[in-house]
Design brief:
Blueprint lengths: L6 E2 L20 E2 L15 H5 L2 H13 L25 H9 L15 H4 L6 E5 L2 E5 L11 E7 L3 E7 L5 E8 L6 H19 L6 E8 L3 E2 L4 E3 L8 E3 L1 H9 L3 E5 H12 L8 E6 L3 E7 L2 E3 L30 H4 L1 H11 L5 H6 L7 H9 L3 H25 L3 E6 H5 L1 H15 L2 H4 L3 E4 L6 H22 L1
Parallel strand pairs: 5-8, 8-12, 13-16, 16-17
Antiparallel strand pairs: 1-2, 3-4, 5-6, 6-7, 9-10, 10-11, 13-14, 14-15
Length: 471
């Protein structure tokens, strides 16, 4: 037990809990001139007393009219569950003292199912000596509570929510179909309900969430936090998603492009661990990319960097979904590949038999048929590797990364069908000093990518907050 040596005159509240670490000489704190005139009052946060106005007034009256009397064992005044000097503090008192480390610092959120209950400073001791009221607070060296992160992966077909620790490691997750209703406000309200249900399952209060990250398919405005008409979310036109979630949860919210968020996740926990210059490419329905350069996510002007799926690899080539011709996505994306298979797949090929007809053929059937040795499928996969090598040659000369991680279709196809042919072709078209040390590897996170990506976006909320404060 340690006590402070200073007194607060006339019950002047200061914005700090009185501990041996936090009380310093200030204009609000004066040393009493004589023992008889001493009046020691509890100095606590204004936020705590805002919940107890009646007790504050009662404390003033008792201080003014008190007679000499000993501390009553079990007394519940001025706060419930008060303890005698020298007795151990309860976890609530430790949490209170741990949240305030210097004068003027706002209180941190407390863990537990009810932040209001946890915030009451109950466990203090009072000793009465005439007109002296001395409040003894326990010396607490408890570490601060670790942040809790909430991640939301907002896809066109599925919604993934994840709860994670400060490093972005998922602790609990849940998934459901996205099912957009056409009413963005109703959709966001439902997402908030799902998030609160996930928090309740984990025994975490909503006010304990330190930051929220949302992985969105785009387009969106990173400055305003607005989602701008994503193709798979009908009705979402200029939706202030960041503001709506901040209003509901009262913590920083960060929106991140889904490919950027996936790149951060693979860089921290997957194929890019330890690299300072890392490129992530995913080839599912379309082709997306994320860049980590110099150990930081690189977004570029208006968050437009990393759109490697729209690098032209055939000037007068096939029409891309974006409207341009010859984009890499028109040759490497799953939707474009399925469209080509419907047109060129021979009816007798293994691809058509696996799909039940070439009209239903997809990249999944193509990869499976190629692994079974079907000649048509092997030729199509060779074509796929050729165009992928073209895209990566531009990427390597422009960025000189240490690691390039390829996800979805290349990962499913494997080493023999994609990675070995791509490395061989790149070796013939890159300068040796550029290609030296370059690693082209499969993405590693697999089904866990959505949770890791959303939590990676939540970690970016701290960086965005610090940058806003610095500016």
């Amino acid at each position: 037990m340690r006590t402070s040596r200073w007194a607060v005159s006339k019950f002047s509240p200061i914005s700090s809990t009185v501990t041996s670490q936090s009380v310093k000489r200030t204009s609000a704190i004066t040393r009493p001139r004589s023992r008889k005139a001493w009046r020691w009052s509890l100095a606590t946060s204004s936020a705590a007393f805002s919940h107890w106005p009646q007790r504050t007034r009662r404390l003033k009256r008792r201080c003014a009219s008190s007679k000499a009397r000993p501390l009553e064992s079990g007394s519940n005044w001025p706060y419930e569950n008060s303890v005698q000097p020298g007795r151990a503090a309860t976890p609530a008192a430790s949490a209170i003292a741990a949240t305030r480390t210097r004068i003027g610092t706002p209180p941190a959120r407390l863990s537990g199912p009810s932040c209001t209950e946890a915030a009451r400073p109950r466990d203090v001791s009072t000793v009465w000596w005439g007109r002296l009221e001395r409040v003894i607070l326990p010396a607490v060296d408890a570490p601060p509570r670790a942040p809790v992160l909430l991640g939301v992966d907002l896809g066109g077909t599925k919604l993934q929510l994840a709860l994670g620790d400060a490093e972005g490691r998922p602790l609990r997750a849940r998934r459901r179909p996205t099912e957009p209703s056409g009413d963005p406000a109703a959709d966001v309200a439902r997402i908030a309900e799902d998030a609160r249900a996930l928090l309740a399952e984990a025994g975490v209060a909503a006010c304990d969430v330190s930051a929220i990250g949302v992985s969105v398919p785009g387009p969106f405005d990173p400055d305003t936090g607005m989602v701008l008409r994503p193709p798979n979310l009908p009705g979402w036109d200029a939706v202030p998603l960041r503001a709506w979630l901040e209003d509901r949860f009262g913590c920083p919210v960060h929106l991140e492009n889904d490919a950027n968020a996936a790149a951060l996740a693979e860089w921290r926990f997957g194929a890019g661990r330890g690299a300072q210059h890392f490129v992530y490419l995913t080839m599912s329905t379309g082709v997306g990319g994320g860049l980590v350069l110099g150990g930081r996510l690189y977004r570029g002007v208006r968050a437009g960097a990393g759109e490697l799926g729209h690098v032209p690899i055939e000037w007068q080539g096939d029409v891309c979904s974006c409207g341009l011709r010859g984009c890499a996505e028109a040759y490497l994306g799953g939707a474009s590949l399925a469209r080509r298979l419907r047109e060129v797949t021979p009816p007798e090929s293994r691809v058509a038999r696996l799909a039940g007809g070439r009209e239903a053929a997809t990249a999944v059937h193509l990869v499976e048929a190629a692994k079974q040795g079907d000649p048509f499928a092997l030729a199509e996969m060779a074509r796929y590797a050729h165009y992928l090598a073209r895209l990566l040659s531009v990427t390597v000369f422009a960025l000189a990364p240490e690691v390039i991680a390829l996800g979805t279709i290349p990962t499913a196809a494997g080493e023999a069908l994609v990675f070995e042919p791509v490395r061989r072709q790149l070796g013939a078209h890159l300068w040796p000093r550029v290609a030296s040390g370059l690693r082209i590897v499969p993405a590693e996170l697999g089904d866990a990518l959505a949770s890791h990506a959303a939590l990676a976006a939540a970690r970016e909320a701290f960086r965005a907050r610090d940058e806003r404060h610095a500016s």
